[in-house]
């Protein structure tokens, strides 16, 4: 392979790898189910769920790490009360098929599942991937969404 061809191949691969975080690692349509209309007083429980495939990119690992740290550091009291739960689930595991279908998602995604008045609603947080490599900004996006319901 000529030197020029190797350089072009390397650049092409680099550009594709940079596109992965923007594309959300194959995330399907993420719809919300009316989560915006829930009053904080009506919330019984919030689940922050990170979905990821078995083979993960750095953006997926960073978003999960940021979400996990945020919950542990700033929402520990809500976890202890049973009002908040963080979970990381494989999107390619057949055992998670039902929740993936309920949320209409796949690939990598971050969701809030809110239980209020006995009903489950959900809200995607795709903005977290815009800041996958900026820890504090990523946490801020997640913090703002959690704070709406907790």
State the CATH architecture. Answer: 3-Layer(aba) Sandwich
Question: The CATH topology, please?
Answer: Glutaredoxin
List the strand order in the largest sheet: 2-1-3-4
Fourth CATH level, the homologous superfamily = Glutaredoxin
- Outline, from the CA principal axes? elongated
- Please give the count of helices: 5
Poorly predicted residue ranges: 26-31
Question: H/E order of the elements?
Answer: HEHHEHEEH
**Whole-Å distance between the termini?**
58 Å
In total, how many domains does the architecture comprise? 1
Which class of secondary structure composition applies to the elements? alpha+beta
Beta strand count: 4
- Strand residues, percent: 15-25%
Instruction: Indicate the CATH class.
Output: Alpha Beta
Rg for CA atoms: 17 Å
Largest sheet: 4 strands, mixed
Q: Give the rounded overall mean pLDDT.
A: 85
Helix content: 40-55%
Relevant terms:
single chain; alpha+beta; 44% helix; Glutaredoxin; 5 helices; 150 residues
How would you explain this protein's 3D organization?
The protein has 150 residues and is an alpha+beta fold. The protein has one domain: Glutaredoxin. 44% of the residues lie in helices and 21% in strands. The protein has five helices and four strands. The protein has helices spanning 3-23, 58-74, 76-81, 97-103, 135-149, and strands at residues 43-52, 84-90, 109-116, 119-124. The protein has a four-stranded mixed sheet with strand order 2-1-3-4. A hairpin with a 2-residue loop joins strand 3 (109-116) and strand 4 (119-124). Helix 2 crosses helix 5 (135-149). It is elongated and about 65 Å long.
């Amino acid at each position: 392979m000529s030197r020029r061809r190797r350089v072009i191949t390397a650049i092409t691969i680099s550009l594709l790898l940079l596109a992965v975080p923007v594309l959300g690692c194959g995330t399907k349509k993420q719809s919300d189910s009316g989560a915006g209309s829930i009053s904080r007083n009506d919330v019984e429980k919030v689940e922050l769920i990170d979905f990821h495939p078995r083979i993960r990119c750095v953006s997926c690992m960073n978003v999960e790490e940021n979400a996990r740290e945020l919950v542990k550091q700033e929402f520990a009291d809500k976890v202890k009360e049973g009002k908040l739960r963080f979970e990381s689930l494989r999107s390619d595991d057949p055992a998670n098929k039902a929740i993936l279908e309920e949320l209409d998602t796949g690939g990598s995604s971050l969701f809030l599942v809110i239980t209020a008045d006995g009903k489950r609603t959900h809200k995607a947080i795709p903005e977290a991937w815009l800041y996958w490599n900026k820890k504090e900004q990523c946490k801020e996006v997640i913090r703002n969404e959690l704070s709406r319901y907790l």
